[in-house]
Amino acid sequence: MIVGLSVLLDVFLPVLPSGVLVIAAATAAAGSAAGAVGDAAVHGHAGFADMFPLVLCAATASVMGDMVAYRLAWRGGDRFDRAIARSRRLTAAQAKLGTALLRGGGPLVVLARFAPAGRSVVSLGAGVMHRRVAEFLPWSALAGLTWAAYSVSLGYFGGQWLGASWLSTAVSVFALFLAGSGAVYLMRRPEEPEAQAS
């Protein structure tokens, strides 16, 4: 419940640690399952199957949050532009990612889900620009599912290898931040040839 609510709301408050909560929940579940089951082979299959509800919860909450932000921005327009302008983090993300998102379309919605504040910029931007639901929703769903599966997998395998400890959570969160850094790099890369040409 707390994980789903955090994922849903962090489109409006990117400081919420929803990725950390998803990883921590998966790490705790994997670590406790590892302690409860003696047979590693049986435990491995059962434990991973038990992660599916967490993936589904996080992905569903992600898409719901995206769509709420999209709809509010569609109706609010200028107000959401002003709201983004009041947040240094959102403003910086919009400046870095906005042009790339407009050029790249759907696949960049998936990349933006991993980038810091990228989800907020994409969801609010799609609403402000009045993109059709049919253009935005499928990519939002794919982005949410990809992000949720990746985050839960990090927590699950971290819990399997290192147990339900702060170390496994920290390693998994670090891997999530690396994915975010990679997403930002990939999203900004198309701008470089133009910058050199001008």
Structural notes for this entry:
With 198 residues, this protein is mainly alpha-helical. Helix content is 85%, strand content 0%. It is built from 11 helices and no strands. The longest helix has 30 residues. The C terminus is likely disordered.
So what's the overall shape?
elongated
Q: What is the averaged pLDDT score? A: 76
Helix content: over 70%
Q: How would you sum up the major sheet? A: none
The class by helix and strand makeup works out as mainly alpha
Stretches where pLDDT is under 50 for at least 5 consecutive residues are: 36-46, 191-198
How much β-strand is present in the residues?
under 5%
Short overview:
With 198 residues, the protein is mostly helical. The chain has helices at residues 2-9, 18-36, 40-50, 52-76, 78-86, 88-104, 106-114, 118-128, 133-162, 166-188, 191-197.
Topology record:
Elements: H1 2-9, H2 18-36, H3 40-50, H4 52-76, H5 78-86, H6 88-104, H7 106-114, H8 118-128, H9 133-162, H10 166-188, H11 191-197
Helix pairs in contact: 1-2, 1-4, 2-3, 2-9, 2-10, 4-8, 4-9, 6-7, 6-8, 7-8, 7-9, 7-10, 9-10
